[in-house]
Amino acid sequence: MAKRYVAVIYDDATQQKLREWATSNGFDLGYGYGGEPKDPSEFEFHTTVFYTSNDVDHYEPPYKLIEAHRVVPVGFAMLGVDNDIPVLKVEPSGALAMLRQRYESLGYRDQWEQYIPHISLSYAKQPVDTSNMAAPDFPL
Fold first, then answer.
1. pLDDT at 113
2. How far is it, in rounded angstroms, from Cα 98 to Cα 94?
3. What is the pTM of this model?
4. Using CA atoms, how far apart are residues 111 and 50, in angstroms rounded to an integer?
5. Least confident interval from 55-64, 83-92, 122-131
6. Among candidates 10, 124, 16, which has minimal Cα distance to 73?
7. Close Cβ partners of 116 (under 8 Å, ≥ 6 residues apart)
């Protein structure tokens, strides 16, 4: 048994568009989640479905292709332990909701008290003013 991480990773076209959008809006893509420097072209946009607080038996291959679905942006927020990770919140519906329910039925319990589906926009851990920023206007 082990703790599990489940995420939806966006396709290559969406990755490229998000990279251009994020960079043009001042987001620093030069860091990984743990704060380590990395090539901005390697920043991986994703939406976490689960990061478990409990050990679970269920295991699936590390990567599994699912049918393409779109997510709808619904605003910005600062998340993370220290509220220093800017994110684009997305609607908790469609494929995300189905995946979330599937893993809940398998006994997954989330590390966070409230599930806020989102796309992390930077791990540089610096404030970004999103108050006048428009969400991406391309399909995610």
1. 84
2. 6
3. 0.89
4. 8
5. 55-64
6. 10
7. 77, 79, 87, 89
Q: Report the alpha-carbon distance of residue 45 to residue 19 in Å, rounded.
A: 8
The rounded mean pLDDT for the chain is: 89
3-state secondary structure of 86: strand
Backbone angles phi, psi at 79, to 5 degrees: -125, -175
Asked if 42 and 15 touch (Cβ cutoff 8 Å), the reply is no
Integer CA distances (angstroms), 102 to 12, 29, 33, 70, 96, in order = 26, 31, 26, 18, 10
Please say whether the beta carbons of 87 and 59 come within 8 A: no
Nearest to 18 by CA among 134, 124, 10: 10
Q: Could you tell me how far CA 95 lies from the centroid of its own chain? A: 14
Separation between Cα atoms, residue 46 and residue 114, nearest integer Å: 18
For the segment 41-48, the average pLDDT, to the nearest whole number, is 94
- Rounded distance, CA 51 to CA 60, Å? 14
Candidate from 2-6, 75-79, 83-87, 131-135 with smallest mean pLDDT = 2-6
